[in-house]
Design a protein that fits this description.
mainly alpha; about 0% strand; Formintransfe-cycloase-like_sf (chains A, B); homodimer; Cyclodeamin/CycHdrlase (chains A, B); about 210 residues; Formiminotetrahydrofolate cyclodeaminase (chains A, B)
Chain lengths: ~210, ~210
């Protein structure tokens, strides 16, 4: 069963349990998907209203992108579980002979690279949701603009959460060139996201206060 | 049907739809519940391990509180829908006669007070989750400490999200003494939460980097 077919209550029960997945990576993906869904909601409550005719074409384009991001981030919940299981499976490989030991280390290292790239992709997707939330906060229906503020904070929490999983896996990778490139991209995305999230949240706060 | 009995996929579909609920208030509550669940997870993976025997009693107490907060925040998803529906219902009341007009205004104002107090309670609950995430980030199992970082960002996003709903409803309340008292409490909670969230996230970031 995929994560999206579980009930919310069961998902939260499993999150809280001593099973290591779903964990922070799944939560990160849900935060991002929630942000994308709220961008879509604000736009769905904006298009078709005469007052917002001027921004309708632009927002319809944003809606196509937010719905695609929502689908990708919902799938990312399951991708995180798979990547984690592969790392755990690799650590569990036999290490009786020198050959087995070498094969195990190689498999662990390959799995760690995947387990770094999967949350990095979630960071990129959340970064994209933040962009769309910023446009929506500027141009969306004023009556529901608070939801654009929730959207940006949701996506930013997803980004900060996935970032921790990038760091924790990159730390154990021996190929430092690979790991350093990921951390460098991460830092750039984090910096951009922080600035745009603060700006967007303030725009919304001023509109609703 | 309560929100927790819906599948995650259906919940996200409804969030994205043009139906105004579930909206940002429901997302705020889920963020908080996710944060509480991750506090519980880290503790469930800490207690019983000899290395963490010294903090076991304290963390077991935190677990009781995080599970109570998770239940309250999960219920808060439905409370938000009810509070919103009551405001919308009040705006829809007849206003043919002066008596009807007066009754309508009174009902709207009463509903707005509830719709301010419901997200303010969510802010308080998220604030409590942040406290527990801070303890967990300090004392929980190092192998899953990144999840304590996700927990604090989840709860903080929930708090910032619910805060917007407090503001938007408080703005329309004519009883300024009531509204100002809520905004004042909100500002205090926001200030405390920002400081503790940053501190906790940095603790985790340093442990995983």
């Amino acid at each position: 069963m995929t994560a999206k077919d579980q009930t919310l209550g069961v998902f939260l029960d499993e999150l809280a349990s001593e099973a290591p997945t779903p964990g922070g990576g799944g939560a990160a993906a849900i935060h991002g998907a929630t942000g994308a869904a709220l961008v879509s909601m604000v736009i769905n409550l904006t298009v078709g209203k005469p007052k917002y005719a001027e921004v309708e074409a632009e927002l319809k384009d944003v809606l196509v992108r937010s719905e695609a991001l929502r689908a990708q981030l919902t799938d990312a919940i399951d991708d995180d579980v798979k990547a984690f299981d592969a790392v755990m499976g690799a650590y569990g490989l036999p290490r009786g002979t020198d050959e087995e030991k070498a094969a195990r280390v190689e498999t662990i290292q390959a799995a760690l690279k995947v387990a770094t790239d999967v949350p990095l992709e979630a960071v990129r997707l959340c970064r994209d949701v933040i962009d769309l939330a910023a446009i929506t906060a500027d141009k969306g229906n004023l009556n529901v603009i608070s939801d654009a503020g929730v959207a940006v904070q949701s996506a930013y929490a997803g980004l900060l959460s996935a970032a921790l999983n990038v760091r924790v896996n990159a730390k154990s990778i021996k190929d430092r060139e690979f790991a350093d490139a990921r951390i460098q991209e991460l830092e750039t995305l984090l910096g951009e996201a922080e600035t745009l999230t603060k700006k967007t949240y303030d725009v919304v706060k001023n509109k609703v206060s």
